[in-house]
Design brief:
Radius of gyration: 13 Å
Strand order of the largest sheet: 1-4
Largest sheet: 2 strands, antiparallel
Order of helices and strands: HEEEEH
Number of helices: 2
Structural class: alpha+beta
Helix content: 25-40%
Shape: globular
Strand content: 15-25%
Number of domains: 1
Length: about 70
C-alpha cells in the first residue's frame, strides 16, 4: 500500500477487528512511499487473527490494499 492512502480509520478498524477475532493467521503490511522509495514492513509476531466477514468486506472496499494470501 502506498503511504498516502493509509489513514486513521483504516488503522482503527484493523486494530479492533484483530482484537475481536483472535486466531492463528498472521498479518503483514508493506507500506511504501513512492516519492522517496522508502518501504516498511509491519507484521504480527505473537498475536494473529481469524479471517471474518467484516475483514473481507473491509478489504474489498479498500482498493488501496494489494492483498496476497499465503497458506502453509
Amino acid at each position: 500500500m502506498d503511504a498516502r492512502h493509509l489513514n486513521e480509520n483504516m488503522v482503527r478498524f484493523l486494530e479492533k477487528n484483530v482484537k475481536k477475532h483472535p486466531g492463528k493467521a498472521g498479518l503483514k503490511f508493506n507500506v511504501q512511499e513512492s516519492k522517496t522509495n522508502a518501504k516498511i514492513s509491519l507484521y504480527s509476531l505473537e498475536n494473529g487473527f481469524e479471517m471474518n466477514d467484516e475483514m473481507a468486506a473491509f478489504l474489498q472496499d479498500c482498493p488501496e490494499f494489494d492483498i496476497q494470501i499465503v497458506t502453509y
